[in-house]
C-alpha cells in the first residue's frame, strides 16, 4: 500500500490513502503533488520508474 499526503496549491488537506502506482498516477494527473510513504523498496523503485519527477517525494516506511 502506498500512503500519500497531498500538498501544494489546491491540494486537499485530508489524508489520502492510495493503493498501487496507478492510483498515485491518477491523483497526480488530477493536479495533486504528494509526499508518499511506500511500504517497500520495490514499490519505491516501481514509482521511480514512472518518472514522476518533482510531483512526488518518496519515503520508505521503515515501521512495517
Topology pattern, helix = H, strand = E: EEHEHE
Parts with pLDDT < 50 across at least 5 consecutive residues? 11-16
Radius of gyration: 11 Å
Q: Assign the structural class, choosing from mainly alpha, mainly beta, alpha/beta, alpha+beta, or little secondary structure.
A: alpha+beta
| Domain module tally | 1
Topology:
Layout: E1 2-7, E2 16-18, H1 21-29, E3 33-38, H2 41-49, E4 56-60
3D structure, described in words:
- This protein is globular.
- It has one domain (2-60).
- A 4-stranded mixed sheet has the order 2-1-3-4, covered by helices on one side.
- Residues 11-16 have low confidence and may be disordered.
- It has 64 residues and is an alpha+beta fold.
- A hairpin with an 8-residue loop joins strand 1 (2-7) and strand 2.
- The relative contact order is 0.26.
- Helices cover 28% and strands 31% of the residues.
Summarize the structure.
This protein is α+β, with helices and mostly antiparallel strands. It is 28% helix and 31% strand. It has two helices and four strands; from the N terminus they run ββαβαβ.
Salient structural properties:
about 60 residues; single chain; globular; four-stranded mixed β-sheet; alpha+beta
Amino acid at each position: 500500500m502506498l500512503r500519500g499526503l497531498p500538498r501544494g496549491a489546491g491540494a486537499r488537506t485530508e489524508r489520502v490513502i492510495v493503493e498501487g502506482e496507478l492510483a498515485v498516477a491518477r491523483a497526480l494527473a488530477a493536479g495533486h503533488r504528494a509526499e508518499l510513504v511506500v511500504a517497500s523498496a520495490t514499490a519505491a523503485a516501481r514509482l521511480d520508474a514512472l518518472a514522476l519527477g518533482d510531483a512526488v517525494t518518496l519515503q520508505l516506511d521503515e515501521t512495517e
